[in-house]
Amino acid sequence: MSTRAFAVQSAEALFGPIAIERRAPGASDVAIDILYCGVCHSDLHTARSEWPGTRYPCVPGHEIVGRVTAVGSQVTKFSVGDLAAVGCMVDSCRRCLSCDEGLEQYCEHGFTATYNGPLDGSGENTYGGYSEKIVVDEHFVLAIRHSDTQLAGVAPLLCAGITTWSPLKHWGAGPGKSVGIVGVGGLGHMGVKLAHALGAHVVAFTTSPGKRESALALGADEVVVSTDPAAMAARAGRLDFILDTVAAAHDLDAYVNLLKRDGALALVGVPATPHPSPSAGGLIFKRRQIAGSLIGGIKETQEMLDFCAERGIVADIETIAMQEIETAYARMLKSDVKYRFVIDMATLKAA
Ligand SMILES: [Zn+2]
Ligand SMILES: [Zn+2]
Predict the structure, then answer these.
(1) 62 Cα–ligand 2 center, Å
(2) Do 155 and 172 fall within a single domain?
(3) Ligand 1 centroid to 113 CA: how many Å?
(4) What is residue 48's DSSP assignment?
(5) Rounded distance, CA 98 to CA 96, Å?
(6) Which among 76, 157, 180, 203 has most CB atoms closer than 10 A?
(7) Is the Cβ–Cβ distance between 136 and 124 less than 8 Å?
(8) Ligand 1: centre distance to CA 157 (Å)
(9) Domain ranges, residue 190
């Protein structure tokens, strides 16, 4: 199926229209007409070859929401007309220990990313959501139970949402727990909303005093300006868990020191240059941990989406036209977005 998309042809090129080929739906495939696609910082890193391994043409986008237009003969969970979503993965080996446990993101053979993924043998590159259609095996397709009017805000749940949900659940964020969220951006704003909805006492950390009111509005119980040493010192040893969403290199000790005994600091951002080495003493004397977490499995992604649908939770977004993607990237680099851009894919079809 010839499919309209927006692509870059090199690291220096600007985005422009392109026709890509989507496979005809196989027996276990779901074909989706894309309605909305969120804009993740990973899209920019990949399009501009800031991470190794970008193949061109590159069609990013892994926060995909749309409507099912066709299903294969063995598909049981989706029917034509259903709302459906696709996140960061479109395949994995489905046989290893991690896949068996529903943790496909840790597949021992490597999962197939939604864009810039390995060729699948049939000659198809993986092209992401900056396109009008996508065809994905039903195992990697999520059901959407939000209302039609919320769909644009649902899109970022597929990466920003699950990337924060998975570690919050893994480290037990909930009633009686004090949870820190470092950074109030695309990921962090979802971290604050989800930790609050899970019943935790939420402390948001930001370098921008101007974000205090908006962080409180998102559900933070306290907001700490991390450049204020007195405010940081006042929270020493107080937090059960800290989710650090900042992708720039920074001093981790400042946050390790805020953890209680046995507390954990989980990183979800990959900095271009390493964080300064943390002090072993800060870990040893209170048996604290520094850990990492990668997106989330398909089962927990569905649980997160259902949790959010029940409570009316969506991302705070700004909708853009496909043709505005370069401007959106420029603004994203300046953190000039509250808190996620989402492409209205009708604008691609109209182009
Ligand atoms: Zn992403
Ligand atoms: Zn696997």
Answers:
(1) 20
(2) no
(3) 11
(4) T
(5) 6
(6) 157
(7) no
(8) 10
(9) 161-292
The answer as to whether 109 is a domain residue is yes
CA of 234 to the centre of ligand 1 (A): 34
CATH number at residue 275: 3.40.50.720
In a domain, 340, yes or no: yes
* Nearest ligand to the CA atom of 45: 1
**What is the rounded distance in angstroms from the CA atom of residue 134 to the CA atom of residue 118?**
16
Measure 186 CA to ligand 1 centroid, in angstroms.
Answer: 10
62 CA from centroid of ligand 1 (Å): 6
3-state secondary structure of 83: strand
Give the CATH number, domain containing residue 24: 3.90.180.10
Please provide the DSSP assignment of 301-323 as one string.
Answer: HHHHHHHHHHHT----EEEEEGG
**Same-domain pairing of 24 and 97:** yes
Number of domains in the chain: 2
| CA 296–ligand 1 middle distance (angstroms) | 11
Same domain, 86 and 65: yes
pLDDT tens track, the chain, 351 positions: 899 999 999 999 999 999 999 999 999 999 999 999 999 999 999 999 998 889 999 999 999 999 999 999 999 999 999 999 999 999 999 999 999 999 999 999 999 999 998 765 554 579 999 999 999 999 999 999 999 999 999 999 999 999 999 999 999 999 999 999 999 999 999 999 999 999 999 999 999 999 999 999 999 999 999 999 999 999 999 999 999 999 999 999 999 999 999 999 999 998 889 999 999 999 999 999 999 999 999 999 999 999 999 999 999 999 999 999 999 999 999 999 999 999 999 999 876
Closest ligand, as measured to the CA of 93 = 2
Q: How many CA atoms lie within 13 A of 172 on its CB side?
A: 9
Distance between Cα 50 and ligand 1 center (Å): 15
User: d(Cα 174, Cα 168) in Å, to the nearest integer?
Assistant: 8
Nearest ligand, measured from the Cα of 161: 1
Q: Quick one: 89 and 188 in the same domain?
A: no
Residues with CB under 5 A from ligand 2 (ion): 92-93, 96, 99, 107
Instruction: Give pTM, 2 decimals.
Output: 0.96
Distance 99 CA to ligand 2 centre (A): 4
